[in-house]
From TrEMBL:
Residues 1-23 are annotated as: Disordered. Keywords: Coiled coil, Exocytosis, Transport. This is Exocyst complex component Sec10. It comes from the Eukaryota. Gene3D superfamilies: 1.20.58.1970. InterPro entries: Sec10-like, Sec10_HB, Sec10_N. Belongs to the SEC10 family. It comes from Hevea brasiliensis. Residues 224-833 form the Exocyst complex component Sec10-like alpha-helical bundle domain. Residues 102-218 form the Exocyst complex component Sec10 N-terminal domain. The keyword Transport applies.
Length: 843
């Protein structure tokens, strides 16, 4: 805001100025300082009018009194101080009509004039300042240009200085390199002189090492002597190589020329002698466990053929490689006292213990090797290789004796399976040992590859041994089952003879347990395939071969089982044929034949049930193999293109023979069932069943005895079929049986004559048969029995109604003609001539 003190100061400062007074003879009121800082128009206006307007002055005075009175004087808001004597003068000139207006107008005009003057002053100052700024700016730009030019000159000077410094540095470096090279050459020349002197000493007389410098005999300077000897030997051999002279010829004839041949020979002798001396010292320190001395000797020996002799010597002198008792202890630990009675589980425990001991021994040796040898990894590589090639190989040779595929070991001694289990245990445990040794440290040695090579001879023929083992196990199992079957047959032979029948159910039946055992053998073999085969292609090939063995075994086993069950059906059929009698036989013979026929029927029913059990177990066995293939085999074959599809095709092929046997056997089962149905119908069906006498008694609406017996027999015997068969097999079997039953009944009824009451009895039989076959769930069979019920109406209706009976079912007209001929009144009612015209017109 505008400051009154500033205005007061401006008045004071303007009192000494030479400005002309205003028209109202007032002193200079405005100054440039009044517009500096925070300018307020209200403050400026108050400073101008507070002397002329009493009200404004009073307001200002009241405001000033609120802040205190200074020296009893009136202080205006703009900072001017008015004397008390001036107040009456203004008061006297006041008029009621605002007489101060003239003074205010004069004041405002003077103020405007002063503002204009101030503007002109400011404009003049601004113009002068612009000129000064322009001049200073030009001067400044000129100075900057000169400075830039000077800086560029400085940069050029610095660049020249830097280039000079770099040049001087390079020169100094070259001089330093020359000096260093010269010093190195001087040192090399000095060493060369020394080496030549020593070389001349060695090139004296052949075999004379007595005249050598003390350096070569001082035990405290062995390291230096060894270094110099190796340098001399390398130089001499290189010189001889340039001359085309071989070292062995020099050894044989040291005086052949006047070159360095003698020096080479003497140096060779000296190095050998020095190396042997160091090895002896190394051995002595090793026995005393003086690691520092051993390390010193090993460091010196590293100059001889990179220390190979020292490393091999150290490894070869380890107790586990030279103590025979260690080898015997290994054998006893793994195989026990009696090698022939060793079991895979005991061998596994023994190998675990032995390999742990070997790992601990190698770990202890590793600590010594790390402290002694300058190249511990090379020593560890030699040590681990020696462990695997000597100690482990010696044990594996005793443990794994590869059997011949021509003369297999007997099953009483474990057979091929024992060898394969031993091989798997040894391989797995040795692989674990290799991993443990890798963790301990074995340098650059390919310990896994070396371990694989230990079993290469066994793995080469592994697939053949695995397949031979599976065949041996299968044959042993078949022999066992055959022996059991023989015992059952012998125990049942007496009972069979007492019944006068040769067919019994004591034949060897298919065993799902046996098939499960086949799968278990195969699963164990597959696990060994996975263990021995690291490559997916190799694994797939071995798995496919092993699985093919299972397919062959299961296919052969269930096919033979089905064939044996078929043999029972065939024997039952032959037994039935033996008791088929003619028409003119005595009652005694007929009774004996009937009894024998019943025994044959019982044998047929037993063989039927036995075959259905065989079919059921065959289906269960195939399901087990398919489930095993899906869960365990297929994923191992997928990495190889075509392997999975080929195995599926082989599985179908292997089961095709069993399917053929099952199909033939099911047909024989139908024949067996139909033979018994025909026997029951022939034995139980009476002529009076369908020609009831017209004696006024109500007709019998029960099924005939023959029908009841047949349905009871079918219900009893087909229970096994309902249980054994499933899906499409069951549907096809029951459909075929239903069709054969329909046809058999038609042929059977052709032997009888029917009256109306007999027709009702026949219709009741057909209904009974139809209700039974409805359990077959075969629509085509149900339809045929429904048509039979329709045809049975030909025996019930009056002759004149026959023409309209088959209007809705023309398909059965042919069979209906045959049925009509069986009517009791066929001839008396002259139905043949009556219907002939009807059939002709309809056709």
């Amino acid at each position: 805001m505008y400051n009154g003190n500033q205005m007061n100061e401006s008045i004071k400062s303007d009192s000494g100025n030479s400005k002309s007074p205003s028209v109202g003879s007032l002193p200079l009121i405005l100054d440039t300082d009044d517009f500096k800082g925070e300018f307020s128009f209200d403050g400026l206006f108050g400073n101008l009018v507070n002397e002329l307007l009493p009200s404004f002055q009073e307001e200002e005075a009241d405001s000033a009194e609120g802040h205190g009175n200074v020296g009893g004087s009136d202080v205006l808001a703009n900072g001017h101080v008015r004397a008390p004597s001036e107040v009456p003068k203004f008061a006297q000139g006041l008029s009621p009509l605002f007489p101060e207006v003239d003074a205010l107008l004069s004041l405002f005009r003077d103020s405007c004039k002063e503002l204009i003057d101030l503007r002109k002053q400011i404009d003049g100052k601004l113009s002068n300042l612009r000129k000064d700024v322009s001049a200073q700016d030009s001067k400044h730009r000129k100075t900057l240009a000169e400075l830039e030019k000077g800086v560029d000159g400085l940069f050029d000077s610095f660049a020249r200085l830097d280039s000079r410094i770099s040049s001087v540095g390079q020169t100094a470096a070259k001089i330093g390199d020359h000096l260093q090279s010269a010093d190195a050459q001087r040192e090399t020349a000095s060493q060369t002189i020394e080496l030549i002197k020593y070389l001349m000493e060695f090139n004296g007389s052949p075999g004379d090492l007595m005249e050598l410098s003390p350096l070569f005999s001082d035990d405290s300077r062995v390291s230096e002597a060894a270094s110099i000897a190796q340098k001399l030997r390398s130089f001499a051999e290189e010189d001889m190589g340039r001359q085309g002279i071989s070292v062995p010829s020099v050894m044989g004839n040291a005086t052949a020329s006047r070159g360095l041949e003698v020096a080479v020979a003497n140096l060779q002798d000296y190095c050998n002698e020095l190396e042997n001396r160091l090895l002896a010292r190394f051995d002595a320190a090793s026995q005393r466990r003086e690691l520092s001395t051993m390390a010193e000797c090993a460091k010196i020996l590293s100059q001889f053929n990179r220390g190979t002799s020292a490393m091999q010597h150290y490894v070869a002198t380890r107790p586990m490689f030279i103590d025979v008792e260690v080898m015997n202890a290994d054998t006893r630990l793994v195989l026990g006292d009696q090698v022939s009675q060793a079991s895979p589980s005991n061998v596994a425990r023994g190998l675990s213990s032995l390999y742990k001991e070997i790992t601990d021994t190698v770990r202890k040796e590793a600590a010594t090797i790390m402290a002694v040898f300058p190249s511990p990894n090379d020593v560890m590589s030699i040590l681990v290789q020696r462990v695997l090639e000597q100690r482990v190989t010696a044990l594996l040779d005793k443990l794994l004796v590869k059997p011949s595929l021509v003369n297999l070991p007997p099953m009483e001694e474990g057979g091929l399976l024992l060898y394969l289990r031993m091989l798997a245990v040894a391989y797995e445990k040795t692989q674990e040992l290799a991993r443990d040794l890798r963790a301990v440290g074995c340098g650059d040695l390919d310990v896994e590859g070396l371990t694989e090579s230990l079993f290469s001879s066994h793995k080469d023929e592994y697939p053949e041994h695995e397949q031979a083992s599976l065949r041996q196990l299968y044959q042993a199992k078949m022999d066992e089952l055959h022996a059991e079957s023989q015992q059952l047959s012998e125990s049942a032979a007496t009972i069979g003879r007492s019944k006068g029948a040769s067919v019994t159910s004591s034949h060897q039946q298919i065993s799902v347990t046996a098939v499960t055992e086949f799968v278990r053998w195969n699963e164990e073999a597959i696990s060994r395939c996975s263990l021995f085969s690291s490559q997916p292609t190799t694994l797939a090939a071995n798995v496919k071969a092993v699985f093919t063995c299972l397919l062959d075994q299961v296919g052969q086993y269930i096919t033979e089982g089905l064939e044996r069950a078929r043999d029972s059906l065939t024997e039952a059929a032959a037994l039935r044929e033996r008791f088929v009698l003619g028409t003119s036989v005595s009652r005694r013979v007929a009774a004996a034949a009937a009894s024998a026929a019943e025994a044959a029927a019982a044998a047929g029913e037993s063989s039927f049930r036995s075959f259905m059990v065989a079919v059921q177990r065959c289906g269960s066995s195939v399901a087990i193999v398919q489930q095993y293939f899906a869960n365990s085999i297929s994923r191992l074959l997928l990495p190889v293109d075509g392997a999975h599809a080929a195995s599926c095709e082989e599985m179908a092929t292997a089961m095709s023979s069993a399917e053929a046997a099952a199909y033939k056997g099911l047909l024989q089962c139908i024949e067996t069932v139909m033979a018994e149905v025909e026997r029951l119908l022939s034995a139980e069906q009476k002529a009076t069943d369908y020609r009831s006498p017209d004696d006024g008694i109500a007709p019998d609406h029960r099924p005939t005895n023959a029908c009841t017996r047949v349905v009871a027999y079918l219900s009893r015997v087909l229970e096994a079929a309902f249980t054994a068969l499933e899906g499409l097999n069951k549907q096809a079997f029951l459909t075929e049986l239903g069709n054969r039953l329909n046809k058999g009944l038609l042929n059977h009824w052709q032997k009888f004559t029917f009256n109306p009451s007999g027709g009702l009895r026949l219709k009741r039989d057909i209904t009974e048969y139809g209700e039974f076959v409805r359990s077959f769930n075969a629509p085509s069979v149900d339809e045929k029995f429904e048509l039979l019920g329709i045809m049975a109406n030909v025996f019930i209706v009056a002759p004149e109604s026959l023409s309209t009976l088959f209007e809705g079912t023309p398909s059965i007209r042919k069979d209906a003609q045959r049925f009509i001929q069986l009517r009791e009144d066929f001839k008396s009612a002259k139905l043949a001539s009556r219907l002939s015209s009807l059939w002709t017109s309809s056709s």
